[in-house]
Amino acid sequence: MRWWAAVELVERILQEGARLADEVEVYLSSGSSIAARLQRREIHYAAGSRHQGLSIRVIHKGCIGASGTQNPDQWRECLGAAVAGAKLATSQPWNGLPDPADLDQVPLNFDPDLRPEPESTRELLLGMIEGTAAYPVEITSGSAEISVYSEILANSHGLNYTSRGSNVSAAIETIREQSTGYEFDNSWKSDLDPLMIGEKAAELASTSTGGKEIATGEYNVVLSPLAFSQLLGAVFIPALSGRNVHAGRSRLANLLGQQVTDPGLSILDDPFHQRGLSATRWDAEGTTTDVLPYVKEGVLQMFAYDIKNGSRYGKKSTGSAVRAGPGGAPSIGTHNIRLEGPRTDVLEERAIFIHDVVGAHTANPLTGDFSVELSNASVFEGGVREYPIRKAMLSGNVFSMLEEIGGLSRQERVIGSFILPDIRLKNQRIIGNE
Q1: 20 to 30 Å CA-CA from 367: which of 59, 86, 151, 226?
Q2: Are residues 241 and 162 in the same domain?
Q3: Domain boundary, last residue among 203, 219, 252
Q4: CB 51 within 8 A of CB 326
């Protein structure tokens, strides 16, 4: 859909919706992408695609209805479904959609030089293949994808924001004997290093061979950003949602102003981080964003709200609304979670380094209890790998493990909506086979 046609469509929906409801919100997105896949060392699949998405939300006398479609030409049906949903909804307190603000609309995560072209994805795949040559491994699979998109968010208060974004991702899996290694990276700009991605995947598979058993006990461990993001995302971040807090599904519900982590640790949502994949000046509802210090020096400072839940519970939106997809309705989420705390060489002293975990999704989001299988784990001493661990599990509680940390690495990595360092944790329970 051409830009002028998209703008005209949004205006037509707002005008029609104003006759049927007190407030109307329209979100329209479109984009294109190209993806390619590896099977062993051969490119066996490549395809380009285009997508469109339309989401309409109406509010009438405190009743909220929403509908979405991947075919914007069906906007009348979509609007009708949203209005019908509002008629069936129960009225709730409502603070109103946001008014427009004077915001810079230059996108924070768009690279104009990044284009969805076959040759670009091919170069990423070939670069990863070349990188794996550093170790004696076989390639099992790989992928590369480049996408660009544009968005319009408008409402009946006169708010009309536009944005553009881009994304590039690459991943590869290798195997040596019975050990596998998987590595990936993604960015909003053309700065991926496919050689590094391939070499890291090969290193993980190669250095995980010949693993030794480990005895069950308490150990100091270092979680990579990948492993840490899975546990943090499964338990701690959902506990910061205002909806979960008021629904009795958050262990942090009654702990505002109290210490909930190590005094040296701060957890923030930074929507302006220059490397963040979800960097934005406004959230999915048009509320202006800001840096949110959820935990400051160990003390819980706040919870996250969108307009709907903030209105229901007598709170203001914190600019934390996100969308699950092109046609998705807004809900509470995060933009770019990052940590502040003591930076150190986390592997200088003896520890078990855990690259990845399996089963984090089974963690109990209310209690924080978890038990996960270790993947590509090794014992380190003085920054040097002594030996890989054959098979073991990490068991514990996400909230408890953050009460006393041993430091954060100086390097950080982008993992989805997280920008995280390695984190050293003290006295964690490892279940071994020895």
Answers
A1: 226
A2: no
A3: 203
A4: yes
Instruction: Quote the Cα angle for 181-179-203, to 5°.
Output: 45
Domain housing 311? 210-434
Q: Please name the residue that has the structure tokens 């795949």.
A: 125
Identify the sign of the CA torsion 255, 258, 262, 268. positive
CATH of the domain at 21: 3.30.2290.10
From 313, 367, 309, 311, select the one nearest 333 (Cα to Cα).
309
Measured CA to CA, the distance from residue 419 to residue 223 in angstroms comes to 14
Give the pair of three-digit tokens for residue 13.
Answer: 């929906």
8 and 97, same domain (yes or no) = yes
Does the model's pTM come out above 0.90? yes
Residue 225 has phi, psi (to 5 degrees) of -55, -35
Strand bridging mode 393-397 / 299-300:
unpaired
136 and 262 inside one domain: no
On whether both 187 and 217 belong to a single domain, the answer is no
Cα–Cα distance for residue pair 169/79, rounded to 1 Å: 35
Which positions ≥6 away from 58 have C-beta within 8 Å?
17, 20, 21, 23, 24, 25, 64, 65, 66, 79, 82, 83, 86
Task: Give the angle 49-53-59 at the CA atoms, nearest 5°.
Answer: 170
For residue range 187-246, what is the model confidence (pLDDT) as tens digits? 999 999 999 999 999 999 999 999 999 999 999 999 999 999 999 999 999 999 999 999
Q: What 3-state class would DSSP assign to 193?
A: coil
